[in-house]
Inverse folding.
């Protein structure tokens, strides 16, 4: 049958109708992704981790909704999220983000049912990487950040690319305004390009050492980062959702952002 | 001369030309579901004190042809929720059959609790997301209206990619550009939905439908409107737009044959 449709073998004579009538290979017209905009940000301290994100959902120049949270409690009760000890933020394609959140949530719950103890943040971080890599050839189009407290009670933050590469970090910005927020964080959290005055001759000064910041300072940095991002990025705005995880549990607060 | 068996009994290629196999798909994926055929335009919805209103016009277009002028695009689910469909009409009818079978199954079940609008929206979003992940999308953008588990008014959107969002007022398609700004002006974010009466909500939707009929070329002045309250669903499917004023049309210059 295949050779019946194979025209290259048939003799070609100069008839007007003897040109090839094979159908051209057609491209698939359906693109399964979209970008829902928004930005997220995570910073850790010595005994806490903060994850924040704006609540705007966009498609193109449209604002879908002003209240679509991007930060989720993982492994807690369904409606309230009570009892969770891990938080996840997802930014990019929101439908993939939701699917990813629900899968990780199910994994963390199953772990507790099967082992009778909560999943550690480092184990959850590895599992999230495996979930993302499992869809290596049809990825979840999201930039995920996972946060919690490690075995020593220190703030733990893991950031991911869409196919599961991950790294533990002190701070990370993701999403539409990541390029606006991340340099600010480099300077204010990791003290990049900050030098100790009078510590050397001329320009050979000593770098200011990065050290864990107090919670109040970090909260203010998060709010400053977003108020600045809102000024310069049209896909960021409406409300700022902030989750703070400490040994006392998870605290969630919303702050207003500009709605223009 | 071709003596191969696959050519036996066939007209000679060198005389009659090669067999036209262009209508046989020889390669590539299935493509007939990767674009919509007969489509419905905008769906608009608003929450008010004690319920939700949803409206669509009664047109199904075939490209730019106004093909079917009596298509009901609001479908009620039991007496609890209404789904408004935009996009492909055959996919709408398929989803409607799905919902019908669920409704029957739920009614025969012994647990006695019915699916509310929120459950229905979650289900639809998952159907959409599964189908887009199989590269065989259901080409619709729907609004789901009714009540959530707490008995609060519920209005949420789901589209062919599985993207979901919820807001006090929503519109799909052209309505996202034309109706949402009107609704945001009449019912600003500061105004709680408890201060919006049923009559105000219905009047606002009628205004939006009128503006859509003025400016959306694939729209109709016959429409359906559903008011969902605790008392039940009030669905009117053969409404006529009233109070049109085309006086503004005379002042529009610069289109078509007349260019000055």
């Amino acid at each position: 049958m295949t050779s019946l449709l194979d025209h290259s073998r048939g003799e070609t004579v100069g008839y007007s109708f003897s040109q090839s009538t094979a159908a051209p290979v057609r491209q698939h017209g359906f693109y399964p992704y979209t970008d829902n905009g928004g930005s997220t940000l995570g910073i850790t301290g010595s005994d806490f981790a903060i994850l924040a994100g704006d609540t705007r959902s966009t498609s193109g120049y449209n604002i879908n909704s002003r209240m679509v949270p991007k930060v989720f409690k993982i492994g807690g009760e369904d409606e309230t999220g009570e009892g969770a000890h891990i938080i996840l933020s997802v930014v990019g394609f929101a439908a993939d983000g939701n699917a990813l959140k629900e899968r990780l949530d199910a994994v963390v719950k199953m772990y507790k049912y099967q082992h009778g103890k909560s999943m550690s943040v480092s184990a959850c971080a590895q599992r999230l990487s495996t979930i993302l890599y499992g869809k290596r050839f049809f990825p979840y189009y999201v930039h995920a950040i996972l946060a919690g407290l490690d075995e020593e009670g220190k703030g733990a933050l893991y950031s991911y690319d869409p196919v599961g590469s991950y790294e533990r970090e002190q701070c990370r910005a993701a999403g539409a305004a990541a390029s606006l927020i991340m340099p600010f964080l480099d300077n204010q959290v990791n003290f990049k390009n900050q030098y100790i005055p009078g510590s050397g001759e001329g320009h050979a000064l000593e770098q200011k050492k990065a050290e864990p910041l107090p919670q109040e300072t970090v909260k203010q940095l998060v709010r400053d980062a977003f108020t600045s991002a809102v000024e310069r990025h049209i896909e960021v705005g409406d409300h700022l959702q902030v989750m703070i995880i400490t040994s006392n549990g998870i605290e969630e607060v919303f702050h207003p952002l500009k709605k223009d | 001369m071709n003596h191969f068996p696959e050519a036996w009994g066939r007209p000679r290629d060198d005389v009659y030309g090669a067999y036209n196999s262009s209508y046989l798909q020889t390669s590539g994926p299935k493509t007939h579901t990767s674009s919509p055929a007969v489509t419905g335009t905008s769906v608009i919805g608003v929450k008010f004190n004690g319920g939700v209103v949803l409206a669509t016009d009664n047109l199904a277009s075939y490209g730019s042809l106004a093909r079917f002028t009596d298509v009901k695009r609001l479908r009620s689910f039991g007496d609890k929720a209404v789904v408004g469909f935009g996009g492909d009409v055959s996919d709408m009818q398929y989803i409607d059959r799905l919902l019908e079978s669920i409704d029957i199954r739920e009614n025969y079940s012994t647990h006695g609790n019915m699916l509310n609008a929120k459950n229905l929206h979650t289900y639809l979003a998952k159907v959409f997301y599964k189908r887009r992940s199989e590269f065989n999308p259901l080409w619709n953008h729907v609004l789901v209206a009714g009540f959530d588990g707490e008995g609060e008014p519920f209005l949420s959107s789901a589209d062919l990619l599985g993207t979901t969002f919820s807001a006090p007022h929503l519109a799909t398609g052209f309505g996202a550009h034309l109706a949402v700004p009107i609704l945001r002006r009449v019912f600003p974010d500061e105004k709680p939905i408890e201060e919006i009466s049923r009559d105000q909500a219905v009047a606002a939707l009628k205004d939006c439908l009128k503006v859509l009929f003025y400016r959306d070329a694939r729209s109709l002045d016959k429409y359906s409107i559903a008011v969902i309250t605790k008392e039940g669903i009030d669905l009117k499917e053969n409404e006529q737009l009233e109070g049109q004023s085309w006086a503004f049309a005379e002042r529009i210059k610069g289109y078509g044959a007349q260019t000055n």
